[in-house]
Write a structure and sequence with these properties.
Blueprint lengths: L3 E5 L8 H14 L4 E5 L5 H5 L12 H5 L13 E2 L6 E4 L8 H4 L9 H9 L5 E5 L6 H9 L2 E7 L4 H16 L8 E6 L6 H14 L12 H8 L4 H4 L4 H18 L2
Parallel strand pairs: 1-5, 1-6, 2-4, 2-5, 6-7
Antiparallel strand pairs: 3-4
């Protein structure tokens, strides 16, 4: 069975996108799944978090796009093992990913490059998670088209709803060209039950999204920031923390959906 591909996307920064990609990867690995997390954001926050510093990393996600139509062989693969779990692999980002819109301008089928690369890669994994850039462009299009499911992390405040609308507009545009609509679910993040505004936004999301909203809600937890500073996913740094437990709950919720396919 080939991997289930998840794109973590939102066209607003600061909503927990990278935290979700890495924490979800850590959760699946701890559940015994062989996983790959890919950092496709030119800001490389996930890469730096995992101690893959762009200036010191030779092989990156950029190689997938720049080498097309001849993808890197196994010896030059941009996939690395991590210090987290033996089942947790990682593809680091490159700042030069920001130049791909210009570099691929005249390349036919440029929106399908990642999907084609994954076709020959995904059999080695059970779950592949893509940390997407917030900007609309060729990388985000590649990730959304390649994904079996899109997770949209949404901070539970009013300002975060703007990015929420942008990603929906992007998916609506892509759906016009795709054979089947993009499957997506929304993940409430950075929830503070003490704040009335957070509770109101969560209620709005539940009414608007219905079953497209995950049952799991990710609360604020200082352990996320601390684990990032240590270059670890939260499961390595604070496995008993609220954040680690909630992402494990999310992984199980997703896993139940995969098993129904």
């Amino acid at each position: 069975m080939s991997a289930y591909v998840i794109a973590v996307a939102n066209q607003k920064g600061g909503v927990g996108k990278t935290t979700t990609a890495l924490s979800l990867g850590g959760s699946f690995a701890r559940m015994g799944r062989k996983i790959l997390v890919m950092d496709l954001d030119p800001h490389a926050c996930a890469s730096i978090h995992m101690a893959f510093f762009p200036e010191k990393t030779q092989r990156t996600a950029l190689d997938i796009f720049k080498s097309y139509p001849n993808f890197p062989d196994q010896q030059n693969s941009p996939i690395y093992p991590t210090h987290s779990e033996p089942r947790f692999d990682f593809t680091p980002s490159s700042i030069q990913l920001s130049e791909l819109d210009a570099d691929l301008k005249d390349v036919p089928g440029k929106g399908l490059i990642l999907k084609k690369w994954l076709a020959q890669t995904r059999r080695g994994y059970e779950v592949i998670i893509i940390d997407c850039p917030p900007q609309m462009g060729v990388i985000l299009v590649n990730a959304l088209v390649a994904a079996d499911e899109v997770i949209i992390p949404t901070q539970t405040d009013f300002l975060a709803l703007h990015g929420f609308k942008l990603i929906f507009d992007t998916m609506r545009l892509l759906n016009k060209a795709l054979k089947s609509p993009i499957k997506y679910r929304v993940l409430p993040t950075m929830f503070d039950r003490r704040a009335g505004a957070c509770r109101r936004i969560l209620n709005i999301l539940r009414k608007k999204m219905g079953p497209r909203l995950f049952e799991t809600v990710i609360n604020t937890d200082t352990k996320f920031r601390e684990s990032s500073a240590r270059g670890r996913v939260i499961h390595d740094y604070a496995p008993k923390s609220r954040g680690a437990q909630e992402y494990t709950r999310l992984a199980r919720e997703i896993d139940r959906g995969i098993k129904k396919l």
